[in-house]
């Protein structure tokens, strides 16, 4: 029996497996520049975040209808449930779809077809987090927030993803303020490829309650101390870090040191179709390669619920 866990860092577009990509391409008459699934899988050799993002955005061309988004989410939820995920807080990237002429309603209502009945069909509760692409303008993010207003009963919060370096959190100050005023929860990717100062900025300028990745905090002892003191959750993605070469090998991943430092770490899959594993696979990998004890794995699973939007703030502070 896999450990029951919550998944807090998962891009739904990153769950598009090659088989489903080809099925949707055929259904929608979209041509893919790959002959078959094996040829596509061979393209999954990444040098860095940008080289992954190029393929990630290219493959999204197959997602066109509400049913496509529903099928995508259903396939993820089935795999996640089989690996012990009981609760999933799911990112989506509306700007990548709006740019292709696929409307906000198609994306949100499509995902909701699967998410809205996920507790019955998969035993997984879900929440939806809308991410802004940080390499697009702040004005575009604000327009996206505006476009989401009819769907805010389906969206619990906002996040920030895509190419990090050169796009500091402060660029999105106004849109985060506007989202906060709408009662939306706030998270952001920071410290994946970007410097530790982006983590500080995400906390102080954007008011995030959780940091996605946050790996590079380890370069700044004062920041680590702060994250421990304020019990700021970090949503780590070990297999992603290896595939995007944020760390050289999994054996060198700082997760054990981060846990020893007292950081509130969680383990997640990020873009499992691209990075070689779902949430349970990430847990298995850190157990095998980093030698984490059962006690540490239980701590990580417990942290995932503590760091989730289900947890009450008092509970998080009390640990
Ligand atoms: N980092 C930044 N942006 C992303 C990622 C990631 O790991 N996955 C999908 N968009
Ligand atoms: Zn991510």
Question: Could you characterize the architecture of this molecule?
Answer:
The chain has 319 residues and is of the alpha/beta class. The protein has a single domain (5-310), classed as Metal-dependent hydrolases (TIM Barrel), CATH 3.20.20. Helix content is 48%, strand content 15%. The chain has helices at residues 18-28, 37-42, 49-59, 66-82, 94-98, 104-115, 118-122, 138-148, 173-181, 196-204, 221-229, 238-243, 255-260, 272-275, 279-290, 294-306, 313-318, and strands at 5-11, 85-92, 125-133, 157-161, 185-190, 210-213, 233-236, 264-267. An eight-stranded parallel beta sheet has the order 1-2-3-4-5-6-7-8. The model has no long low-confidence stretch (mean pLDDT 97). It binds hypoxanthine and zinc ion. Zinc ion binds at residues 9, 11, 161, 189, 212, 270.
Sum up the overall morphology in one term: globular
Q: Could you state the oligomeric state of the chains shown? A: single chain
Q: Find the CATH superfamily.
A: Metal-dependent hydrolases
Ligands bound here?
hypoxanthine, zinc ion
Number of helices: 17
Q: How many domains make up the coordinates?
A: 1
Mean pLDDT rating? 97
N to C succession of SSEs? EHHHHEHHHEHEHEHEHEHHEHHHH
Based on DSSP secondary structure assignment, what is the total number of beta strands? 8
Helix content: 40-55%
* Classification by helices and strands: alpha/beta
Question: CATH first level: which class?
Answer: Alpha Beta
Strand content: 5-15%
Our measurement of the CA-to-CA distance between the termini, rounded to an integer number of angstroms, reads 26 Å
Q: What is the CATH architecture term?
A: Alpha-Beta Barrel
Q: Detail the poorly predicted runs.
A: none
Alpha-carbon Rg, integer = 18 Å
| CATH-defined fold name | TIM Barrel
Spatial strand order of the main sheet: 1-2-3-4-5-6-7-8
Q: What composes the largest sheet?
A: 8 strands, parallel
